[in-house]
Structures are given as C-alpha cells and as structure tokens.
Amino acid sequence: MSIKFVISKLVTFRVSGQINDAEGVPQPFDFALTCERLAQPELDALQAARSDMPLADFFAGPRLDAQGQPVLDGVGQPVPFTHGWKDVQDDAGEPLPFTQGRLRELLAIPGMALCAFFAYRNECGAKQKN
Prior knowledge:
- The chain has four helices and three strands, in the order E-E-H-H-E-H-H.
- It has helices spanning 40-49, 55-60, 100-107, 112-123, and strands spanning 10-20, 26-36, 82-86.
C-alpha cells in the first residue's frame, strides 16, 4: 500500500461529548469544525510561543504563525483558523450559520474548547490503523 503525498490545508473533524442539562441529565452533543491543518512543527512552535493562549482563542482567532503572529491573506486580512461548522443548531433545531462570534459563544461552554482541541489533535494528523 502506498501514500499519496497530498495533504489538504483544511481538516474537518467531529467534536462530541455530553453536557448536563438543568436536571443533571447528560445530553450528548456532536458537531463538526473545519479548521486550518497545521503541520506538526507549526503546532509545536505555536504551543511553545503561545502556551498562555486560551484554547477558545486557538479556534476563534486568526491562524497564527510559529512566532504567534497572525497569518495574513493576499490583501492583508488575518486568515481565520476555523472556517466553518456542521450540525450546530439553534434552540428550535434549525441549522445555525457559522460566525466567529457564535463560535466563541459555543467555546465559552466550560470544557468545550478542550473537547475541540483534543478532537483536532486526534484528527488533523496521521494515526495508526486498527
């Protein structure tokens, strides 16, 4: 078996877990985020340079270079790290359009940014096949 040496600059991954409701009953959640795929050296350097950065800022802020500075596009605008989501709904069950502000609201739920970070680390790179 061979490997195609073509790796997408974006990665879509599932974030799942559970949150207790008002009665303490666990309610499952499962949604997808589409983010920039960082190479391992970029991720290592970013974690070293910005170890104090809240995980919500990792996802809801601009893509950062190895020195922790925003990466700019061709017209000088910051490149977002997270580009979209799937399966996020409002309280009426309707699809909720992605915005950076709504992403920050979602990641403000205690533990949600950590769930997203672990999912990103597990899904953005190679892993052993069972």
